[in-house]
# Entry
Amino acid sequence: MSDYIIKTIQSGVLETLQMTFWAALFSYLIGLPLGVLLYATSKGRLLQNRPVNAIVGIAVNLMRSLPFLILLVLLIPFTRFVTGSSIGTKASIVPLTVGAIPIVARMVESSLLEVQPGIIEAATSMGASPLHILVHFILPEATPSLLQGAAINVATVLGYSAMAGVIGGGGLGAIALQYGYYRYQKDVLWTTVTLLVVMVMLIQESGNLLAKKNRKT
Amino acid sequence: METVFELKNVYKTYNNEGKEFTALKDVSLDVNEGEIFGIIGMSGAGKSTLVRTLNRLEDVSSGQVLFYGKDLAELRPRELRNVRHEISMIFQGFNLLMQRTVIENVEQPLRIAGVPRKARREKAREMLRIVGLEEKEKVYPARLSGGQRQRVAIARALASDPKVLLCDEATSALDPKITGEILDLLSKINRERKLTIVIITHEMAVVEKICDRVAIIDEGELAEIGEVKEVFRNPRSSAAKKLVFPSNPFDPTGEDGKLIRIVFDGTKASEPFIANLVEKTGLKVNILSANTRSVGGIGYGQMVLELPEDTEKQKIITAFFEESGLSVAEVENTAVSAASEVDKHE
# Structure
């Protein structure tokens, strides 16, 4: 491999990490509250509210059922509106975030559902308000599970980021596509794929470790 | 004596997919300040629902629950939360936060009440001293035994200086020895802090050991209520009899044989009345089962006797026991009573 390719791959790694980091961060900023809302408004929960739950639930399901590749294309006008461009690393963060939000929301919801109902009953009997119960009882109890879910989500975003290469996003995915696929440079293809696999594994393992360290049971 | 809880004609009906289920039927009772009040019943009798109406974890369908004269149903959410600071609760499953240390768990009610951090910690330490777990404050509940976890739950329940402590099957997950220790702790707290305690249980041993008064709940209804001693000496309802007297597994050996149960209290327990019977009447009885238990420091005993087949002799023996001041009741043939059980359920 030429020096040029090696340099390209190096910056590709960096771009991939950038996209993953920002997309994961933004998707949690929106997905976490959404997940909490899905949980809290469902039947028999703290803030039971059927209309809110139905609307959020349907929106999340709709977004989740779109294949990511289609979402990428559909979002081009929106991406251009937000970042001023529809290609490049920065632009890829927008569809990645949008694509990850519903997944994050559902993961958060299922983590919260794992919390023992007895904990909520105890908190209620102590005279805690619904908001206090959410913040000081349910979220702390769900933390190990939330971390475990976060590891899966970040790894998923990283995988998706490779797809952004198809419509002109940056990162390892774009390199694999341009050099490996269009120009038949198998060595580049395999190098980028290996790097992606290693990165996913690192994220998943460190997430597991973090969750395990936080789990006191 | 002030009344802590007053239940007036409480009904609770659940509507489960079109099917109505009545968990509580016309329950009226008072809980007095400073007492340990037991609520006992078989599982599914409605006692867990009953205790949850006391802090409005369950709303009643009709009737009233008054806490120091205030109708809980009329409280707004904020007022209800403030009342709940005065009614603490412990559970069969302890319900501790597993991701928080012991002391952080005990601090929870204080945090809800908005107590500043330092005062919170001090108060929590004091509570842990009461339950004898001051050494464990930095430990996570997962590292504690069941008995220790329930102690933490008790410390947590006491932290908000409640007026009442509700115990929902608090010892049912514990072995008899640990149960005894927890009950001793509860009774110590009742004495020293003048804390009213309501205990829900399906175990007669729990009521026997620490309750002053007891209510017996049977299929959602209040079957019997009274001083524990009185209920033990003279259970009136069939639900009470079932709980006080262990079931008799024996049938009379002969066809005309008759079984009776004699019940005696502490004053009679020292008299050798079986020997007296033989001496005075020359008639013999067969002892099928016997036991004694201590309720509030007084011994109560009961015996199941098989009488001779001759009806005349049976009359003499029954009369002898009655004259000696024992209460005598005929015991149903187990085969017969099993059959009548079936009838009842059909």
About this structure: The mean pLDDT of chain B is 87. Chain B touches chain A through 29 residues (CB under 8 Å). Residues 286 and 306 of chain B are 5 Å apart (CA to CA). Chain B is about 35% helix and 30% strand.
